[in-house]
Design goal:
Elements: E1 4-8, E2 14-21, E3 24-28, H1 35-44, E4 51-54, E5 66-68, E6 101-104, E7 131-135, E8 141-148, E9 151-155, H2 162-172, E10 177-181, E11 193-199, E12 211-214, E13 227-233, E14 255-257, H3 271-301
Parallel strand pairs: 3-5, 9-11
Antiparallel strand pairs: 1-2, 2-3, 2-6, 4-6, 7-8, 8-9, 8-13, 10-13, 11-12, 13-14
Protein name: WC11 protein
Disulfide bonds: 29-93, 73-83, 156-220, 169-230, 200-210
Subcellular location: Secreted
Length: 302
């Protein structure tokens, strides 16, 4: 499973310790947390070489998953992910006072990347704020645009596929990707084309983490702008907005497409059809078991 680590605060170097697992951010229970564990977390996040474990003042039941408990880092451990722990479990601890809160002794340095670190209308921002979709109605479908070097630009559709769209939908905070669209399906953009030949595995947390060529070759034009169509989840059932949800189950989860989106809504599968498929599968399994029982009984009589 794809995993990641963060401290849930604006500076990224203090706050509640969280891990990303199975498509969801969750916290870590404080049982067995030592100074070695705290040190590894701070180093891994680029927030200094040590830190302090804070005592939470909040009371009440934990709302988010608490993925890990009894993380026991040893002196020879060189990474947080090498430390043994209890198995993954969303109900590791029940009280907010048991969550792990850490304050590191350093701050993240400003490191420029290929896409730049300028932020629209702010001195600092997250990768999520450097991505938007244009042309849809709900903010979950449209032409994909990235903020870099002081302006918004587009992404070329060369090699654009569902894995790339899945990463975009996750970064936007939308439901699972429904389709990856090409040839300026939501109209042609303006400005630079920042990325070409995007190759995501589908597990990245942001498009900026995917391999891609800089879009300055002049080969791509805005008529090839990439777009996505993400589902808009109403979160009526647990796990419905997970980016790993099977697209055929979207109707059962009240996940809908952006009403202003492009072509090809005809492929949607209705709820009755899905229910019939499930019931039919169960019926076939039951008949197979009955047939096996009849054969066993006949063999016993013989």
């Amino acid at each position: 499973e794809f995993t990641a680590l963060r401290l849930e605060n604006s500076d990224g170097c203090s706050g509640r310790l969280q891990v990303f697992y199975n498509g969801t951010w969750g916290t870590v229970c404080s049982n067995s947390i030592t100074s070695k564990t705290v040190s590894l977390v701070c180093k891994e996040l680029g927030c200094g070489d040590r830190g302090d474990q804070e005592t939470p003042t909040l009371y009440g039941k934990v709302a988010d998953p608490v993925w890990l408990d009894r993380v026991e880092c040893e002196e020879r451990s060189s990474s947080f992910w090498e430390c043994p722990s209890s198995p993954w479990d969303p109900d590791s601890c029940d009280d907010l006072r048991d969550e792990t809160h850490i304050t590191c002794n350093g701050r993240r340095p400003e490191v420029p990347s290929a896409l730049g670190r300028e932020c629209p209308n702010a001195t600092s921002c997250t990768d999520r704020e450097k991505l938007r979709v244009v042309g849809g109605e709900s903010g979950c479908s449209g032409r994909v645009e990235l903020w870099s070097r002081g302006s918004w630009g587009t992404v070329c559709d060369d090699s654009w596929d569902m894995q790339d769209a899945q990463v975009v939908c996750r970064q936007l905070g939308c439901g699972p990707a429904v389709s990856a669209l090409a040839e300026a399906a939501f109209g042609e953009g303006t400005g630079p084309i920042w990325l070409e030949q995007v190759e995501c595995r589908g597990t990245e947390l942001s498009l900026q983490d995917c391999w891609a060529r800089p879009g300055d070759s002049g080969v791509c034009r805005h008529k090839e702008d990439a777009a996505v169509n993400c589902s808009v989840c109403q979160r009526r059932l647990p796990g419905c907005c997970s980016p790993y949800l099977i697209p055929a189950l979207l109707p059962l989860c009240s996940c809908t497409q952006d009403s202003g989106t492009s072509p090809s809504n005809s492929g949607k599968v209705s709820v009755p059809v899905i229910i019939c498929i499930i019931l039919g599968t169960l019926l076939c399994l039951l008949l197979a078991l009955l047939a096996r029982q009849v054969r066993s009984t006949g063999a016993g009589h013989r």
